Amino acid sequence: xxxxxxxxxxxxxxxxxxxxxxxxxxxxxxxxxxxxxxxxxxxxxxxxxxxxxxxxxxxxxxxxxxxxxxxxxxxxxxxxxxxxxxxxxxxxxxxxxxxxxxxxxxxxxxxxxxxxxxxxxxxxxxxxxxxxxxxxxxxxxxxxxxxxxxxxxxxxxxxxxxxxxxxxxxxxxxxxxxxxxxxxxxxxxxxxxxxxxxxxxxxxxxxxxxxxxxxxxxxxxxxxxxxxxxxxxxxxxxxxxxxxxxxxxxxxxxxxxxxxxxxxxxxxxxxxxxxxxxxxxxxxxxxxxxxxxx
Length: 294
Hints:
- By secondary structure, the chain is α+β, with helices and mostly antiparallel strands.
- It has three domains: 1-80, no CATH class; 87-192, CATH 2.40.50.140; 200-292, CATH 2.40.50.140.
- The chain is built from four helices and 13 strands.
- The chain has helices at 3-21, 56-79, 147-154, 204-209, and strands spanning 98-112, 119-127, 139-145, 164-174, 177-181, 188-192, 200-202, 217-230, 234-238, 246-250, 262-272, 277-281, 290-292.
- A five-stranded mixed beta barrel has the order 1-2-3-5-4.
- Helix 4 (204-209) links the parallel strand 7 and strand 8 (217-230).
- It is elongated, with a radius of gyration of 36 Å.
- The termini are far apart.
- The relative contact order is 0.09.
């Protein structure tokens, strides 16, 4: 059989296959001539047989199916509870790990590093449900430094004392220490705002004699006398009559005050378990935390 005969047979077979596949003479996508009845357009590479092309109906159905699947995954993600690590479970074995906790803000302070250049916001946190317990096991400090501290304030993301927060941070833990470091401001979210409790006005004598009545409440000592200054953050005060003993005020730079001065003080009344005594924790950036009366 000659080559010419072979060519004619091949052409005839190709034509028959084109008819069987219903290949059009024009590309259904770009509209150009498809005289050779190719299964794929020579210009735009689109499949030309109708039964091999994806129909608009099929595409719409696929879109609907994908949308429903995405919606289902979204609902599952929203309804599933996130996995939190309890504060008491953060230990040396998890050092440098990124952890997530649900905690209550006990205390907030702000200070600068030893070079007075970079601001640091420090939050003392405790488990939101079980409470603080032991000062080491049940509580932990969260630090936001430099740019992160600035963003917390500028973006209005700062929590208040008593708020419950969702925190994702890096744990630094070793023998005798545990600290969380916040990487970005957005990883600290307030999930439950604290109700604003009224400040309880009292005196040193009442706090010393009935401490449980004022535990974890914001109190205001109407009048006290500075008896001693200790370290960098402690004042010891007594009542005006000096009869009931002394009370520790923690969180104030004592260098700005004198022994014998009369003051009023506002802060959170708490029990310092490691030291074994009650104290009034204050934040100096609050205008009414310490007011000199004479």
